[in-house]
Amino acid sequence: MSVECLMSKAGRLLVTLGLAVGMVSAHAQAGCPIPLKKGLRDIIQSGQDADAPLRAIDQRPPAEQLQGLADAALRRSAQVGAQRLLAEAAELDLQEVIARARPQAYVNATVGPTVWRETGSPRDQALQAQGGVNVMGVLYDGGRQQQLALWRQQLSKAARAGLFQAQEQVLLETISTALERNRYRMQGQVFQQHVRKMACLVGMLEDIVSEDRGRASELNQARKSLSQAELARDTALSLSRQLEARLSRYVGAEAAAGDGIAGALVKILDSGEVLRKLDQGYDFQSFRAQVQASEHLAAVTSAAQRPQLNWVVTGSGSWRGEDKAASVQAGVSLSYNLFDGGATESASLAAVRRAEAARFQYEEFTNMRVARVGELHEAATSAFDRARRLVDVLRESDRVRQATFQQWAQLGRRSLFDVMSSESDHFNLRVAYVNALYDGYLANSQMRSLGGGVLGWLRPQ
User: Fold this and answer.
1) Of 126, 135, 132, nearest to 110 (Cα)?
2) Cα(289)–Cα(165) distance, rounded to whole angstroms?
């Protein structure tokens, strides 16, 4: 083959590659600018089909999207419904104890035939009726009834706080699931763009190999990178679909929305503000009520060792044949346990120990939450700082990959491995940027839950 022929052939290749570089640089985000063969068109089209759900973007403001998810989650949650019934049951238990502290009245009656016989007299038989009324009330019980009422009152508070705590848990789980779904959706979009870029590169190399069979190994390398990009894309989209299914279990049809909720979670809360609001959290309220309930229960067992003094009024009447009788009695009853083998004392000491243990658990819970606030604040700050720094790195990475591509395509000074490596590094950095953002969003949502609660934030009083 003549030198002119070789130069002509090389020139055609360089022109082809030069045009490809310009077109890819100008239209990288719009899709592959190079005419593709049918197989590559199918690859691109499959990615677009997989991306189709991503184009249904929720246009509502972020706070409104978040409110919609929250309302749907609270309506559908069986956990919240069960906790609401438990709170109502605890309130009814309190009403029962209060009612038992009031005077109690009991009625009894008996009707039936009676047979009797006196000495020296014939047997007699008649219908007999008896009835009575007992009314009694507490004069002194060592404070037992009062402590019982206070115990039930604190349990009712704990149950009511537990209802709001369950709502917080449902909301936080819903928000976390929606954020994770959106994370993998974004990853799927990034990997889809990588697929398109690799498909363009494969198309270019197929044209080159048709002219120069000696570069078939480069085509194989590009196809391998294309397959890896497709695998990463499909994995991300599969995870997003799994999380979509989980989210639909929480919020139903509202799961199709919520793409933009991250916009409401950008602000990093001040850790001092969160710590000041920490004891306002429903979990703290529930824990404090349980601690106080355990203290009142210990007082109940202690009061049970004291004398019990009640007033009693009893009225009774009977009717037998022509005989009638009636009586009324009023008095005071006293009961006191002289000796039970130490059972009451042991029960009282056990209740005191449980109350002390509950106080220690509350202190440990407080310390853990304070430390957790510090961890989440550092996580959110670090994640958003990482995202900001990655923007600069991505800008430089984009320059590197474009320069590498041009040097390979136009000057032959870089290998195809360098081109694919720079492309892979760039898209991995983009995925790292997405992960950094969503790590920050998740940390912020958890801090919201600790600092006064997500429910209080969405529905300010």
Assistant:
1) 132
2) 13
Question: At which residue do the structure tokens 């994995």 appear?
Answer: 235
CB contact set of 404 (below 8 Å; sequence gap of 6+): 414, 418, 419, 422
Cα–Cα distance for residue pair 264/359, rounded to 1 Å? 37
Sign of the alpha-carbon torsion through 448, 181, 72, 165: negative
pTM score of the predicted model: 0.78
Give the position of tokens 């677009």.
48
Q: Could you read off the pLDDT of 24-33 as tens digits, one per residue?
A: 333 333 334 4
Residue with the two structure tokens 């709502």: 167
Whether residue 448 contacts residue 380, with contact meaning beta carbons closer than 8 Å, is answered with no
Instruction: Give one DSSP letter per residue of 174-234, joined into a string.
Output: HHHHHHHHHHHHHHHHHHHHHHHHHHHHHHHHHHHHHH-GGGHHHHHHHHHHHHHHHHHHH
Q: In whole angstroms, how far apart are CA 211 and each of 122, 146, 372?
A: 137, 97, 63
Pick from 240, 234, 270: which is nearest to 255 by CA? 240
Residue in 5, 439, 409 with CA at minimum distance from that of residue 218:
409
Nearest Cα neighbor of 41 from 283, 243, 210, 203 is: 203
Q: 132-146 burial by CB neighbour count: b if 16+ within 10 A, else e?
A: beeeeebeebbebbb
Cα angle value 262/264/269 (rounded, 5°): 110
What tens digit of pLDDT does each residue of 209-233 get? 888 787 788 888 889 889 999 999 9
- Burial pattern 249-280, b for ≥16 Cβ within 10 A else e, equals ebbeebbebbbbbbebbeebbebeebbebbee
- Tokens representing 400? 């590197």
How far apart CA 237 and CA 227 sit, in angstroms, is 15
Q: How far apart are CA 53 and CA 243, in angstroms?
A: 14
Q: Which residue type, as a one-letter code, is found at position 301?
A: T
| Token duo for residue 41 | 């068109």
Residues 161/279, Cβ–Cβ less than 8 Å: no
Averaged pLDDT for residues 194-223: 85
Distance CA(206)–CA(84), nearest Å, equals 66
- Backbone Cα Rg of the chain: 40
First to last CA, the chain: 86
Structure tokens at 249: 């279990």
